[in-house]
Amino acid sequence: MNWGVKIIVVYVCFIGMIFFLIIQSYTHPSDLVAKNYYAQELAYQEVIDKEINGKKIDSLIHVVLGSDAIIIKFNPKLKPIYHGNVTFYRPSHATWDRSFVLQLDQANTQHIDKSYFYPGYYTIILSWEDGVKKYQVKRDLTILSIP
Fold first, then answer.
1. What is the C-alpha to C-alpha distance for residues 22 and 38, in angstroms, rounded to an integer?
2. Which residues of 71-87 are buried (b: 16+ CB within 10 A; e: fewer)?
3. Residue 22 has what pLDDT?
4. Contact 114, 69 (CB under 8 A)
């Protein structure tokens, strides 16, 4: 094989690799963090304020992974919750994100059935207000198995 044929072979292999990468990039899902990401970015100062308020009471909120449910516990010392929500954000797959209304029982806990989720890593975003201030707390959770 002379040097001219070797150059052609290298060139063809390079073009083949480029086509392979183009096809891979078009078939790979490219989900944004949120569908309305840019609108949320403009209102991000409110999120910063909620997280600052949440850091003051961070130790009074616990998330426990039970055998068949995820248990969110609020300390009774906290002010009653006016309204709020719990968002389970799955970074690797946007369609597996889940959101629930924050509804605490008499013991200041909320049980969320694990059957709503797939095994893997989630970021839990607790967001609520007590009528005066708004709060936001984040927790990381790894679900290893589903009952």
1. 27
2. ebebeeeeeebeebebb
3. 93
4. yes
CA-based end-to-end distance of the chain: 62
Q: Residue with structure tokens 């839990």?
A: 124
- Neighbouring-strand partners of residue 121: 142
Assess if CATH 3.90.1150.10 describes domain 37-143.
no
5-35: pLDDT as tens digits = 999 999 999 999 999 999 988 887 766 666 7
Inter-residue contact 82 to 131 (CB < 8 Å): yes
CA 88 – CA 116 distance, rounded (Å): 10
Q: What's the rounded mean pLDDT across residues 61-68? A: 91
Give the start-to-end residue ranges of the domains of the chain.
Answer: 1-30, 37-143
Under the phi-then-psi rule, with left for phi > 0, alpha for psi from -120 to 50, and beta for the rest, what region is 79? beta
Q: What is the pLDDT of the chain when averaged over all its residues?
A: 89
Q: Which class for 49: exposed (0-12), middle (13-18), buried (19 or more C-beta within 10 A)? A: middle
